[in-house]
Amino acid sequence: MDTKSLIIEISTNLFQKKGYLGVGINEILKECNISKGSLYHHFPNGKEQLLIACLHSLNTIIISDMKEIFQQYPTTQLATQTMIEKLADQYDRDGMITGYTFSSIVSEMGSLSEPVRNACALSFQKIQDIYTYKLEEDGFSEQTALSLALMMTATIEGGIMLCLTKNTSEPLRTISKGLPQLLSYE
């Protein structure tokens, strides 16, 4: 793995675990085993530029995983339930959900940095686009699919945050049973 990719991978993990404000440059340098010069060579504008690179990397992983799941299942209901169960299983296994949420970063940095807010907004939009496309395949009108996709995004992100604050996967498990029922096309 090249140095830039290593910095992004390690920093993404740190930002997800501790938040942007909870991670200092020195911690990144230590965890990556690099010099300050090496960090600024790859990210001349510093920590915020690194965060945006981490968000883009995280987005690529999330979108790839979601597309794979949503292509495997014939309906939005089944794909959604599978995806949420996967998140709940990850929480039960690891005690956290890394790689699937931007919420903590948005809440921490969204009002402080327009570039970070824009990167997060783009990520959420790509997630909603996957839901919208699948819902339209299920027969929902474009407008209904867009509305449902927004509701799905908000519900799942909220479920992830509840898992983290309640220290249990139960919120996602409950959502995995209830949300698909709202998506039945009649």
The percentage helix is over 70%
Oligomer: single chain
The class by helix and strand makeup works out as mainly alpha
Mean pLDDT: 88
Major sheet: size, sense and barrel closure? Answer: none
Order of helices and strands: HHHHHHHHH
**Low-pLDDT ranges:** none
Structural description of this entry:
The protein is mainly alpha-helical and 186 residues long. 78% of the residues lie in helices and 0% in strands. It has 9 helices and no strands. Helix 1 packs across helix 4 and helix 5 runs antiparallel to helix 9. The longest helix is centred in the N-terminal third of the chain and has 26 residues. It starts with a helix and ends with a helix. 31% of the residues are buried. The model has no long low-confidence stretch (mean pLDDT 88).
